[in-house]
């Protein structure tokens, strides 16, 4: 092989090294790249949120749908190639959620009724190491992260439940549009229960019960994240307890002397 020729294997190794630098590096250029990816992710989530209304755009909606599918496919392929072991990468539940979201984008005519599950992209984003290593590095393993995760779970559930109600009960009394479905979900989740919008039949009642139970649970988790005492992540090397009070001198589980760095 001449000096002017390049080995495809070497090109692949260089590409993988570059992707690992961008997706996992701590240098400013890598952080800026990941911030750009996160901003694009948030814009895509905004599109998912507005999709039930934008669907009336006709062919323009599908063109935008496939454009977003191409962006998401490139991002997932790059993340997989940058990962040390693709098989281990595929074992992560978050990855399968993202792959399903991609499928709804590639086949919108067949899977549009499952399009409400696209909002799970918000959950995968705010529960990923990728996000916290980039945007929330200083808040990782702190109360801020706990509140953000709890809030993401609640918001994701609200819009997934809204999408399910809209896709399943659209056209029934009271559910004439997406806003009606959102109104019903929030009223049921908060147990306000105005009664002006209800779901018909036993399945509608069972769904209402499920929304109330899950919603109360998620509200409680958010409240706990807001009011529980602040803990710092400092694993005890004797018993393995992960979180301690910021001013703890001894591990409350085994009594070992601790030396927790001062965050200030």
UniProtKB/TrEMBL annotation:
Membrane topology: Multi-pass membrane protein
Gene3D superfamilies: 1.10.287.70, Voltage-gated potassium channels. Chain C (1.20.120.350)
Cellular compartments annotated: Membrane
Domain of life from the UniProt record: Bacteria
Keywords: Ion channel, Ion transport, Membrane, Potassium, Potassium channel, Potassium transport, Transmembrane, Transmembrane helix, Transport
Domain Potassium channel: start-end pairs: 156-226
Name of this chain's protein: Potassium channel family protein
Lineage of origin: Bacteria, Pseudomonadati, Pseudomonadota, Alphaproteobacteria, Caulobacterales
């Amino acid at each position: 092989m001449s000096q002017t020729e390049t080995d495809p294997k070497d090109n692949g190794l260089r590409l993988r090294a570059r992707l690992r630098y961008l997706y996992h590096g701590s240098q400013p250029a890598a952080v800026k790249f990941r911030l750009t990816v996160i901003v694009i992710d948030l814009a895509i989530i905004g599109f998912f949120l507005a999709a039930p209304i934008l669907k009336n755009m006709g062919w323009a909606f599908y063109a935008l749908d496939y454009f977003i599918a191409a962006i998401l496919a490139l991002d997932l392929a790059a993340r997989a190639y940058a990962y040390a072991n693709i098989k281990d990468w595929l074992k992560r539940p978050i990855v399968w959620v993202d792959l399903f979201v991609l499928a709804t984008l590639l086949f919108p005519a067949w899977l549009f009724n499952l399009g409400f599950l696209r909002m799970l992209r918000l959950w995968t984003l705010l529960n990923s190491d990728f996000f916290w290593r980039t945007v929330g590095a200083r808040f990782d393993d702190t109360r801020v992260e706990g509140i953000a995760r709890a809030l993401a779970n609640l918001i994701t559930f609200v819009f997934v439940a809204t999408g399910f109600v809209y896709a399943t009960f659209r056209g029934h009394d009271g559910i004439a549009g997406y806003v009606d479905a959102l109104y019903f979900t929030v009223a049921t989740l908060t147990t306000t229960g105005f009664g002006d919008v209800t779901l018909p039949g036993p399945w509608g009642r069972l769904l209402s019960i499920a929304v109330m139970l899950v919603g109360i649970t998620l509200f409680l988790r958010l409240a706990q994240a807001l009011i529980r005492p602040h803990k710092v992540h400092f694993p005890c090397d004797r018993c393995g307890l992960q979180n301690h009070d910021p001013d703890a001198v001894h591990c409350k589980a085994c009594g070992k002397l601790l030396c927790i760095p001062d965050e200030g």
